[in-house]
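Reopening this ticket.

The earlier resolution said the output was attached, but the attachment link was broken on my side. Pasting everything inline this time so it's all in one place.
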Amino acid sequence: MTRMTGNRMIGIVAVVLASFIPHPGKAQNLARRINDAPDGKVRFEFAARQDLCGTGSSISRGEHNRMSWDSDYSEDVEYSEECLRGPVRIVITKSGGQIEKIRTYMGGRWRPTNERTTTLGVIGARDATDYLLSLAGSSSTTKIGSEAIFPTTLADSVEVWPALLRIARDDGRPNGTRTQAVFWLGQMAGDKVTGSLSDIVGESSVDREVRKQAVFALSQRPKKDGVPALIEIARTNRDPEIRKTALFWLGQSRDPRALALFEEILSRR
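Inline output:
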């Protein structure tokens, strides 16, 4: 049996430990590449969650959960069929050396480029989300901060909620950016408490809609009354869809008590 020297053992241990340490340098490298790119468009892509597909400016999860913010036409990405699986495609528009807009797409393929487009290719999901979250956490404008948050929620195998929680609680961030962070925290918490809704039977669907309207009514009450009631529903209601509805409306509140609940739910293993 070959004996291992102390120095060699230390070296191997160091390599193993290094594999578990985040590498912010990669995200910084992406930031540098984007900063160094000329004015025009900068585009890159990264791996998307397996439950998502997209067409144009709409992204879907399942048949009835569609996030759409524009028409299905895209000047940046073309689609040969409806609702294609990943990757997430990001288009950053720069002018005067500054970022003016961030567009997010899912699936498809890039349209032909021109001299004002810089293509960075495939970026690791962690590196891409680290960059976008850093942008959201540092941008002084609501527009860019908000646009940077959404694509991070689409990344495959990356846990972004701790960073979103920090942004939501940061009084130094623009209100619109914090609101966007809280909204997506509420969505993630809702997904966690419901899991798959496929096992919810339809026989109580009418009653469920009535109860969801009651939850909505609570969300319209003053925070001192409505937020505690919504938190109680989110904690104790036996219907997972009603709990998810309560979490959705809590995500509109930006109340510190709602953020504490989201953290509690998302921290569970």
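Reporter confirms the inline version is readable. The chain has two domains: 22-158, 161-195+215-269. The first strand starts at residue 40 and ends at 46.
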